[in-house]
Amino acid sequence: MQETLKRLEQDAMSALEKADSLERTREIEGEYLGRSGHITMILRGMKDLSDEEKRVIGPLCNTTRKTLEDSFAKKIKEFEDEQLAKELSKEFFDTTIPSSTRPLGHIHPLSQLQEEVERIFSQMGFTVADGPEIESEHYNFESLNIPKDHPARDMQDTFFIQEKDDADHGRMVLRTQTSPVQIRAMEKYGAPLRLIVPGRVFRFEATDASHDSMFYQVEGLLIDKDISLAHLKGVLAEFLTRLFGKPVKVRFRPGYFPFVEPGLEVDFSCLLCEGKGCRVCKHSGWIEFMGAGMVHENVLKAGGIDSKEYQGWAFGFGLTRLVMMRYGIDDIRLLTNGDLRFNKQF
Amino acid sequence: MLVSLNWLKDFVELPKDADGKTLGNLLTLKTAEVDHVIDESADYENIIVGQIIEITAHPNADKLKVTKTSIGKETLQIVCGGENIKEGMYVAVACLGAKVKWHGEGEPVVMEKAVIRGVESYGMICASIEIGLNNPDEGTHDILDLSALKPETGTPIKDVLHKDDIILEFDNKSLTHRPDLWGHMGIAREVAAITNSKFKPIKVSVKIPETGESVDVKVKDFHLCPRYCGLIINNIKIGKSPDWLAARLKTTGHGIHNNIVDVTNYVMMELGQPLHAFDKTLIQNGIVVRTAKKNEKIRTLDGKEYNLDENMLVIADSKKPVAVAGIIGGEHSGINENTTAIILESANFNHSSVRKTSTKLGVRTDSVQRFEKGLDPLLAETAILRATELILQICPEAKIAGPITDIQKFNKKPLKITLDLEKAKSKIGADLSVQEMKKILESLEFKVTAKGKKTKIFIVEVPTFRATKDVLSEDDLIEEIARIYGYDNIEPTLPSLPAKLPLQNNERTKKHRARELFSYGFGFDEVYNYSFYGLNEIKKTLLVEAQHLKLQNYLSEEQTNMVTSLTPNILKNLQENVKNFSEIRIYEIGHTYLEIGQYFPLEEKKICGAILIKGKSDKIFYEAKGCVEAFIQKFNLSHVAEAKGAKNTPYAHPIKSLTFIDHSGKSLATCFMLHPTVQKNYDLEKYSIALFEINFTEALKLEEIKKSYKRIPKFPNISFDISVAVDKNVEIETLKSTIKNAEKDLISDIKLFDIYEGDKIESDKKAVAFSITIQSEDRTLTDAEMAEAQSKIFTALENLGGKIRGKNY
Question: Most C-beta atoms within 10 A of its C-beta, which of A275, B396, B468, B550?
């Protein structure tokens, strides 16, 4: 009996080895393990054996069956996999059909850059401050050391609101700069102070490809003890280096803005030519970028800060201009005319 | 302003080969921005003096000749068409490599060896216009004849014609605060300081007689005119200015008029003090400096007539104004070819008054540009002496009639400022020595009193030419030190500041998160619009004009009012974009400004979104509603309820609109279909448009819901669907609450999944299908419990007049 079993197992295995198709494998499986297969028959005949024989033959019989079952299953799986692979390879499927999820919308490039700027300065401990876009002449000019007949009032042609005049506030204007928030913040928080103000400003001037009556600025202010121009240079270089992702140098030139003294024009090293001179930087190696300086004592006074104890600097740059530089946008009006063929590019 | 390097050399000892580019750059870094440095000689490279030795006929062209022209070391064969050429004539030869303009037209071209009608030519004999000169005496077919100058052959033309200057073009804006830099002497003083060179201030030697005829001057207002110097010069002969003077004026961008006017301009360019000359015979009984009378008029040198007012300062004679003080002279009293005697005026006028008058009249002149900066009254005297000296030099026969009339009233006390040196170093951020700071200030003619090398204080006397407006405080002195020390020498340093967290700006952060929600969550594109719109937009959106702030000055009729709502501009965006897109989702985050009867308007931040699709469908209303709901959910806004309609939103559809309110009933957000009238006004009738508006400022005032964990049910739930036919006008919310109330304890969720209206149902009915989930927290529900719940719901819906679909009645 034992030998029969062994022989059957060997026969089955060699038949299986020769099997060249799924059908043939199933046939052989039937011959041995089917309802009337050789192994099945033996198992079925077990009941006629003596207890002694059952004890020996039983486990052997089961082992043989298990071995054969596993071998057949394995072989069948091989054939099935092969066949499936063959079938799948014949299928046509077009992966180039456009995706069916609703496409992502687009955040305006000004918003994107503004957030980047805010994040960098926040990490340096600067508060992001806000202020009204409609301002009084007091906040927009007088408190910033720009009295009525000051030439700087020409430099910033101003929109005025009708029928808004007040002894304390003066006329009502659309803010020409984000600087009024300096005063508002000084009044509210006092010194020390570290903040930036990104925001919308207005100028009453004709619109063309590089000028718009409305654009975005970022104001920065740092007031503390012993704050110097060297710190201004350090902070601006740090900011620009992070923003552009490569080392940027900062250059100061004398400049004139009534609310700072000393007043500065700030340039940064041209990123395209790295200071060698190219078309973008007009062959100077530097890009004109912002106005800055040490906050004028009259401005500190207007904000209620003791200029004997505290000093600091302020800067202001055009976020709109930075966006235009970053993406090579040659017409400022594209930023505000709502043409989605533009907005969808960012 | 254009500054000539040669002219500067009158006042500063510069090395002979001083490089214009380096100087321009240095000035930009330390003084004021030099926009361009123009090297006059650059255009004359490889153009040299030649002498025509021999002229022969051209074998193939009647109008051309072949010359042998000597250029010193060698003799060239040059083909030339000039009609005036002669043997022995000195000419300008453009050698190979020179840049010339053919016949004075087009872009310059580089000279190359050429074969002209079969004859080789090694250069060109130039006409004036071909090398950028203007010589009116030269005929159209003539070439430039240099014979009169008797030059040596081979000499560069730039030397012969004195085209050896370098012009520095300053950006006027960067000189706004510097009254002292509007003439060559002032710039030279700076150049001396920044290059460590010797400054040579002007020395005037002219003898003014002690007796004789003087101008009678009355100054009525010393605030507006702190000083007036006048001088009579007789025996004047009006004529052309000498070449050297004309050349300097031309180089610095001035027109040439006559010797007297040219001298006044010359002195202005030299010292920065504007002067004026009157024809003495046209001035009646002396000069009165006074404000204009009501309705007074003047016709000025620009040929225009101006109406003056009582705030404007004029120079008048006994009868009428003869000049607008510091701005422009009168036409009637001006220098003319018959002038033989002049009154020379050198005065000081109040900067602010000059500026105001200039702005009011709309006249800007070189004179205004200087006076408005606040000139030094002492300069008036130097200038009148210098002008007199020049006039005598140019018109030797001229005679000074008598002493200078000098009417003045101004503060002569020198301005002294205490400078705290520690403060200066702390603000600059550089460790300057006492000596260094002293040297810098002195190089700019500040007088420094310092006690010893270790002093912490300077007493600084400001030179008069800086003390009018420019340098008034300690910080102004610190600026002088910083810029001359060199901003480039300041090392970038990061401040050591406490690691204190910045104040949170919740609103800003949430604005960025809201953008992500709408753009990346719902596929909306963000737009930016102007803060204004026009009456037309107000009318089209049915808004009320009176609630708007109106601009006093505006750029176009489309930008007259400040926006009270973002919607009108968003609708305009839709109107523009339907040309290119058939489906649009956009939003804007911006400010609105509402007149509320106080000084400052109510300025709020809003979010406005719009969805536009082709054809007629209300389904986008629910998308807009979803946007608001998502916003509320995203920012965990608590106690928000819904109310029908949209108040104060005239452009919203009266029925298809919904408001989200807070616990006090204040509106936080609305969503709506666009009002059909407005839709028509914007020519968008072919589309369906849904909008939402969120009052961002108000919404963020709401308390945030505090989230806490709820246990996930242990026992399985059971879901079943029901479909009920009801009258069309029964609202879904009514059905849902009816269902919920029928089995309050067990129902955990009710989902609407279909609304059907059509031929398979009575025309006044709709079939509504819900998927209902029941759930118990403490047991597995049985089939019997489900059947019971179902039957309760059926009954409740039937009581509402509904018929359960699939149930036999």
Answer: B468
**Does B530 contact A213 at a Cβ distance shorter than 8 Å?**
yes
Task: Please give, rounded to a whole number of angstroms, the shortest distance from the CA of B566 to a CA of chain A.
Answer: 13
Residues from chain B contacting residue A128 (CB–CB below 8 Å): 502, 505, 508
Could you tell me the pLDDT band of residue A156, with boundaries at 50, 70 and 90? Answer: low
Closest CA of chain A from B647, distance in Å: 26
Same domain, B262 and B333: yes
In the predicted model, is pLDDT for residue B595 greater than 80? Answer: yes
Nearest Cα of chain B lies from the Cα of A95 at a distance, in angstroms, of 23
**Chain A residue closest in CA terms to B556:** A206
User: DSSP 3-state assignment of B550?
Assistant: strand
Alpha carbon distance A55, A8 (integer Å): 20
Question: In percent, how much of chain B has pLDDT > 70?
Answer: 100
| Min distance A260 CA to chain B CA atoms (Å) | 9
Query: What is the average pLDDT across A149-176?
Result: 82
Angle between helices B184-195 and B20-30 (to 10 degrees): 90
Flag whether B494 is in a domain. Answer: no
pLDDT digits (tens, 9 = 90+) for B332-377: 999 999 999 999 999 999 999 999 999 999 999 999 999 999 999 9
Q: Which of A250, A127, A61 is nearest to B491 (CA)?
A: A250
Selected for mutation to probe chain B from A126, A159, A176 (highest B CB count within 10 Å) is: A159
Of B372, B507, B515, the CB nearest to A111: B515
Share the mean pLDDT of chain B.
Answer: 93
Count other C-beta atoms under 10 Å from residue B471's C-beta.
25
Amino acid in the structure at residue A273: C
- Chain A residues with CB under 8 Å of B515 CB are 107, 111
| Rounded average pLDDT over B633-640 | 89
Interacting residues of B203 by C-beta distance below 8 A, sequence separation 6+: none
Picking from B30, B519, B553, the nearest residue to A204 by CB comes out as B553
* Residue B785 CB contacts under 8 Å (≥ 6 apart), including other chains: B746, B774
Q: Within 10 Å of residue B512's Cβ, how many Cβ atoms?
A: 17
Q: Which residue has the tokens 């050391």?
A: A145
Residue A151, pLDDT > 70, answer no
DSSP assignment letter at B519: I
Please tell me whether residues B582 and B679 are part of one structural domain. Answer: yes
Give the right CATH number for A109-343 from 3.30.70.1450, 3.30.930.10, 2.70.150.10, 3.40.50.10540.
3.30.930.10
- For chain B, the domain total comes to 6
Mutate one of A134, A137, A268, A333 to test the B interface: name it (highest B CB count within 10 A). Answer: A134
Per-domain boundaries in chain A: 2-90, 109-343
- Rounded to 10°, the helix A2-18/A51-90 angle is 10
d(CA B10, CA B527) in angstroms, rounded, equals 59
CA angle, B287 as apex, B282 and B290 as ends, to 5°?
125
Average pLDDT of the residues in B469-494: 95
ipTM of this predicted structure: 0.86
Residues B236 and B279 in one domain: yes
Query: What does the alpha-carbon distance between residue B478 and residue A263 come to, in Å, rounded to a whole number?
Result: 11
| For testing contact with chain A, the best of B194, B419, B420, B494 (most A CBs within 10 A) | B494
Residues 6+ apart with CB under 8 A from B686: B614, B615
Give the one of B31, B490, B572 whose C-beta lies nearest to A229's C-beta.
B490
Report whether B383 contacts B377 (CB < 8 A): no
Question: Domain with B339 in it: what CATH number?
Answer: 3.50.40.10
Distance CA B540, CA B750 (A): 42
Size of interface A-B (CB pairs under 8 A): 234
pLDDT per position as a tens digit, B208-264: 999 999 999 999 999 999 999 999 999 999 999 998 999 899 999 999 999 999 999
